[in-house]
Amino acid sequence: MPAVTPSAEELSAGEFSPETLFIALNSFNRDGFLVLEEVEDAALIRRMNEEMIPERREVEEALVSSGVMNATHKAEDKPTKNCLHGPPSHRPELGSHKLYKNPFVLQVLNAYLGPRPQFIYTAGNNAGAGGTERQRVHTDMTYLHPEAPYMVAAQWVLSDFSPANGATEVWPGSHRLTTNDDHVYDPKMNLWIKEQLVKERARTHPPVQVECKVGGVFLRDMRLWHAGMPNTSEVDRIMLACGYSARWYQCRGTVKLPQGVEHLYESNDLVEVMAEYLPLDQYKQYRHKIMNDQFHTKLILPGKVGVAA
Ligand SMILES: O=C(O)CCC(=O)C(=O)O
């Protein structure tokens, strides 16, 4: 598993040494994902998990009634029990605002995506307990995209992730060559990688499930093939994502936040916060959604790049 853990010196400095950064970037470029262990307060994360676990039924009902989550969610006709479950940004006492500005994540992303990336979305996935079905292999991209690193999801695990509770499956190195032609789209904006390509790659570069402990985060290049896996344990498994885009990509998306928390989401030298502050009732409608054009570029470019699929 490509992973780095800050030393005591790095923790007190709030940044990786050049040697650790070298190792981190090497792995991340090669594999398309990277685990950073022990970079956040585990007690804070556990508390957030305890508060979010009881929300599951309410979240599921809201998603189904708004038509966002169909019963299958990225698996042909079989319910996966995986649903979008956004962070509790309207409850600042739980500290979800700390995640987007984690200094270790930002240091790696400033090197991987170029200086001062833009924070452009939050999201979350809840793999419901007692799942039996997996998602199809996919990349989250319903649009044409550049072949350079341009966007990363920092995925915070709210409980220790292992195959038993549906740790995300990733396909090492798949980000380097994948294009939109590898995908199948269906009318409901579901998308997945063509079955034949998945079979071929499995023979030479098989997938792994990302193991990560509370207090750690895994970074995923948006081009990486991945899939939600069944959580066969008895407890729901939640992951919260903060999404960052390279400045040059000029992403259209904004992170939806409730009014009143502006002071907790300030831009700094390492990140620009692209926020849209909404009245609480509107924020709640967006909390568990990702908009269809969330990841598209604003640029109008010749050829295919940047044009919505
Ligand atoms: O929850 C997970 O582990 C991954 C979910 C996912 O990839 C998705 O819903 O697009």
TrEMBL record:
Please name the InterPro entries in this protein's record: Fungal_Metabolite_Diox, Phytyl_CoA_dOase-like
Query: What single Pfam family name could you report for this chain, choosing any that match?
Result: PhyH
Q: Tell me the leader sequence span.
A: none
Coiled-coil regions listed in the entry: none
Cited SUPFAM superfamilies = Clavaminate synthase-like
Q: Write down the PANTHER family for this protein, in alphabetical order.
A: PHYTANOYL-COA DIOXYGENASE FAMILY PROTEIN (AFU_ORTHOLOGUE AFUA_2G03330)
Protein name as it appears in the record: Phytanoyl-CoA dioxygenase
- Species the sequence originates in: Saitozyma podzolica
